[in-house]
Amino acid sequence: MIPEIGQFALILAFATALYQFAVPLYGAWRGDQRLMAVAPPAAMLQVCLIALAFGCLTWSYITSDFSVENVFMNSHSDKPLIYKISGVWGNHEGSMVLWVLILAIFGSAVAMFGGNLPPSLKARVIAVQGSISVAFLLFILLTSNPFNRLDPAPIEGRGLNPILQDPALAIHPPMLYAGYVGLSIAFSFAVAALIEGKVDAAWARWVRPWTLAAWMFLTVGIALGSWWAYYELGWGGWWFWDPVENASFMPWLIAAALLHSAIVVEKRNALKVWTILLAILAFSLSLLGTFLVRSGVLTSVHSFAVDPARGVFVLGILCVFIGGALTLYAWRAPVIKSSGLFAPISREGALVVNNLILTASCAAVFIGTLYPLALEAVTGEKISVGPPYFNLTFGPLILPLLLLVPLGPLLSWKRADIWAATQRLWVAAAIAIVFAIAAAAWQSRGPWLAPVGVALGVWIVAGAVYELLSRSNLRKAGAAVAWARIKGMPGATWGMLLAHAGVGVMVIGIVAITAWKQEVVTVLKPGDAMQIGGRIVTFTGESPVTGPNYSAERGNFRITASSGATADVWSEKRVFKPSNQPTTEVGIQPYLDGDVYVVIGDRAGDTGRTVRAYFHPLVWMIWLGAALMFMGGLASIADRRYRVGAPKKSSAAAVQPAE
Amino acid sequence: MLRRLLAAMLILASLAAPAVAVQPDEVLDDPVLEQRARDLSGQMRCMVCQNQPIDDSDAPLAKDLRVLIRERLVAGDSNQQVVDYLVSRYGEFVLLQPRLSAKTVALWSGPFLILLFGALVIWRQRRMTASTPVAEAETSLSADERKKLDAILKDAS
Predict the structure, then answer these.
(1) Where are chain B's structural domains?
(2) Is A384 within 8 Å of B134 when comparing Cβ atoms?
(3) Per the CB < 8 Å rule, is B111 touching A599?
(4) What residues are paired with A583 via a beta bridge?
(5) Which residues of A touch B27 (CB under 8 A)?
(6) Distance CA A214, CA A181 (A)
(7) B21-94 architecture in CATH?
(8) Predicted TM-score (pTM) of this structure
(9) What angle (nearest 5°) sits at the alpha carbon of residue A650, between those of residues A644 and A652?
């Protein structure tokens, strides 16, 4: 009964989405207020219906209702509750339901919080959002029904792929989807603005927080996936340039560009047409990512849908939305006029350079990901495009942008003196050089480029700190005034400083782990020890372990630091029921200078074990960098000026003008 | 339908096996040679895996290739000779960094051409706008809308 309710709710949601798409769009065209006014309630109804369907599916998973094919294929009654729930989106059908749920949540958020949008714009945004729902609900109903029944019902399910049974991977997909789908709002705003033929500061002010939110979710989603790969795949790799990773990285890059160009639209009334294009591109790349993952066109570790019928359907959706939006763009973009003029050396100019480089870097990822497919389709020849390609193209492209990060915010709008701005950064440059020398002294081996990379990261962080201090006017005005100024700084400024510092911190972490990683592979008997990263790792013995749905062999290790402090870690080889699939759990002991990472391998001889130990220097800086970027987004989204129309507490509250 | 799904799951199960790669018995005694072998095997694709270099793949084929690379290095081959040897045996598909050739020229130049093209467009745009003076205050807003916007902006700050 419950699954049928879910199925019915999905069908109703589809009907609602059709209504939400067609009626307000027609109303906005006719200028009919009553027809436009149906958009918000339709969006609310749609989100309720999809939430009901999602709830029904979740219920089927929690109660292990194996008469539902989807539950049978992807769940098992022995699984811990959290993985029963995460099993809902650990498969193709369920993840698509989550996808449309998040889509509907974003649509209803516009309906709820868009009170002060011009009525026609609001109606059109919600209608475009509805059209995306129509396409994906139809996709679910026709090709990927999660509520199919089995008769007779099997006694036990097949279980969730054990590699997906992990806390980080349980929340990684929802975060990523929230990011992908969040960009649909920017897309809907862009399409609506093209139909209206008008883009102004208020429009940019509306688009930016939504893009920020999506970008933050993408940041967290990508970072979680990377963190998961780091501790789960058994050797500490954290980024592989895998097509599925690239699929999430491309929208992230374009969303980052969009965040920056929307500032120019808002502050300076320029770059409007370009910003619209970025908004369309960002969501188009999200759709492309969905297509790549869902269609199985690039069979990679992540792809769990291997059904060409679905691939063709998603490709159709892709063509309609991307093609339609770009056609509309070509037709209507000339109507939209920008008026803000600026000199090449100016804050606007710097943001244009930012956009150009981010877009070209994204192009490198795009070409590298799709080129082998295109070549094979056209000529039948197979080539591989792997990490070395991306390091050689993406690397040099993004490098100048990293160098310019501290400089951009120091330039003034319209026209700037680049020489004066550069001079102000000499302290940051000096600090960067000092750190480069320190890094070279700390790690005498490794490539000579590594200290330069560290210097680059430090340069970005020092630049952000310098910016903070100079805005607070600490040197001239004294601590009290400086503190007051720091406290009064707008959220957007905090956001910029935190996110930029996060980029710098991440660069340091990436350089350190890439250049100075250590690895030892050897056979240890209980009591034997090896040395790694300045610590001693002793194999203290092994013990059998039984988990809720797996059995494991656990190797115990003691890590002794040079100070004499010890820490115990373990690493397991697990075998999961019912598939007998093996996984490895690694032992990680974090230190300030990096992680000691121990992995137990196969038996060797009577009592021996193959043991791998790694030292991953400063790897925590990668995650810290991502966290700082996220916090930057949070600070920026909390900026007062985005809460346009929110009830005012006091009109006399003196707040600095928004930067 | 069910059979196909089961088959797919089996394939996935074999793919998802944790990567453990290089075994102790493969490691060469000479650390310089070993490092060269590691560098090379990071550049070679495990052809039966999904986007994995042989360096961190568990597949038997990857192990064979790793051992093969080490044999060639011990025999005195240069890195380039080892790469050429592998390509002659397995084709260019084995290279994670495709060679520059007629069929990959677009792959290698594409990103940089896009950067160049973008820079060119911006430069031209600038020259065009510079030659047509536009009043700074000109906007597409009507007087009424402007009043509303001002109210909103005032509200925000």
Answers:
(1) 21-94, 101-129
(2) no
(3) no
(4) A574
(5) 521
(6) 7
(7) Orthogonal Bundle (1.10)
(8) 0.88
(9) 105
